[in-house]
Please model this.
Amino acid sequence: MPKETKKKKKPNNDQDLTGLVAQRFAGKPLRQPNYSMRDVPKANPDLSHSSLYEISSRDHFNDSMAEFVLLCNEVMRRKRLVSKENTAKPLSLEYMADRLDVDDPLRGFMGFITVTTFTNWQESFRWDSLHPSAFAYDEEDLQQEMISNTRKWDRDGSLSKELQSQVRCGDPWNEGIVYPKIAEISLLGGLGCGKALLSLAIERLENMTPTSEYNYDYVALQATDNSIPFYESMGFVRVGAVTDAIPENKEEEKQEKEKTQIVSSPFFIVHVPKHGETPLQYAKKYNVNVWDIIYLSHFLYPDMTPRSPLMKGTQLYIPKVEKKEGTDAEINASANATQTQWHDALDNETPREIAKKFNVLLNDLLTANRTRIADLKANSKLIEGTRIQVSNLDEVEEDVLPYIHWTFPDTKFEDNPDPSYMMVRKLNRKRKPYDEAHKVENSLAVKVNTEYNPDDIPTSVVKPKEEVTTTKKTKKRKRHPEQPLQPKRPKTAFFVFMENERERLKKKNVKIAQTDLARVTAEHWKSMPEEIKQPFVDTSIQLKLNYENAMKVYNQQMVEFKQKYPDWTEEEVVVTKTKGNFLNLFNKVVKLTKEGKRLAGDEYEYYYVLTYIPDLFWCHLAPMRKAGVFTNKKYSGRTKWMLVDESEGKEIDITASACTVVKSTCTKKCDDADKEEWNIVDDTKVPVTTEMKQAIVMDAQKTVPKSPSPQTVVDASLATTNENAAVTETVPVSANSSDDEIMIVERSEKIITPQTLEEKSPQDREMEKKNSKSMQRTLKSFFGMSKN
Model:
């Protein structure tokens, strides 16, 4: 997974909530295990005293998704206990949900590891370890490790060349470009069992019988920073991958094109001249793998096998084999000798100065770099970090970006400029005796079980009472020619700033490539004060309003479209829905229920909801800490709450049913949640100033009529608070208290469950009525009100 930056506030509107499941089907509420991951012991290397299950059902993985994310969190927590170094964030729930929904085929083992066929959605994707852009975005420490060979990588480019020559085919706008000869470890997590599970998965891949859809010779994966040494010990090496950057003037043109196009490795077509010939004969004739022929042809002939007799006139798709010129050693030596060199420009450095520094002709340097930086001139002042090609100037270098895994055709590089660390291992597909072929499995102390029943897993989550069928459009569905185009999502404040910088630099005749602009402006944005960012924030808010208006028009157009084309129906999927209004937990302050504290611990009292996935009914929470007291008049003496720094690794994942919303006010709003300050209404004694007491009395007098009825609510906040939020009452410490001190307690805590909004029973209403009368008598006594 790419690294995650500082915590940012999540959007707080229903439209953005649907975007969280934009690349997958809506799911069902996750099953919260009724045990704490902290109680799970580390597995033995041979898995003794453990159970091992092999899974081939997607549903089984989905039912265990909550355990997966909690296990990953626990792995990171234990690493932090033994190492002071910063550890990478664990796999996110959103990423897991996407992979488990989209990966096809999907198999693996509980504990856990999942395996699929390598697929990407970038038309221009290619394996290339020798391209200068492949590792261009590495941080300095990683660059030094690469240079010193501390990291294992495809130094001569031979492995990337093999991978690039593999057969592939697919639609990047739908099912993706599939590489049937490359498997992928998509998810892996374990408490001491990672090596055993990965070894077993590799052994399974090496012994797998080829089919028309896969015949694995390699296994790839995307590594996190902390996992790199582990994968290197398992025989994986880093391999470079790149994609073409989309020129700014062609981006809109690409979006308007029909989003259906097949991308394939080179091939040619052969028409079978007579009956009875087989694919195996043609594989021998053209010196190619028969399963490559079958894969390219299986879209037309899904039941084809190597020895299938073919009819006269049958079209066979034969992969083209690239001819070698010279030996492998000669090719690799030539590639290393001619590798292009780059220079990162200093601030205000000119091409003239760079040409002199590297002893190259100025005109050659300008010509080579103008493909990336239009109108580059000898005295153009460059922004610090702009990459300038300084060797092989007679070769035109295209604008290329390092590859980011699990991104889609319309994803912009600047949306997440953090390239993936791709690693690959070559599989040993030679036939071996049975004992040797199953060496890993035989070395384990337990047998592999294939009978797995997820219903046996106990759960503390209350399931919704009803399920309804709704529709959701899958990304594998083609678009109707007359279907309205959905408005583009509004730009964030950062991208408004970046566009502004691009225009400003153009006016000043400062040249910079699009790829460099994203990197440089991101650094500037991070260091800018909040007051300078504010105009861009205001602009992004206006763009968001425009987007919402455009969405209203789009929704109306979609209604008319569906009326005109009723047969153009969307695929039906079962989505769990609940009665009542939608509960939005984004950016809320919550506390854990008793069950939640049992599962996640009681180290912290309050949490901030960083991420809420409504269909999965799941929250990612950041704990909150006391940060002094407020000194302003409105909240004077109240405890100030802020988020615990994410570097401490205290964030948790938990079902939303374990969260209770707490009444709170954000007194300092920022784009960065870490900097926000909160006033939380809790149940502890707090000193009350004269001003606060007067304000409480004034609020009560505004709300309570001169002759209050038994149903009158005294506290003004009760009249406006949504019944789904926690409601507060002000109560005296004692009836005769003369101290400027009151108790603020929660009158009604609403636990967030799918049944929260169900109609109240008559008994509940009668109990609330009695509580209300009792509370009013207490308040009247405190404020000196006479009884009626």
Remarks:
- The chain has a mean pLDDT of 75.
- Residues 27 and 615 are 6 Å apart (CA to CA).
- The chain is about 30% helix and 20% strand.
- The first helix runs from residue 14 to 19.
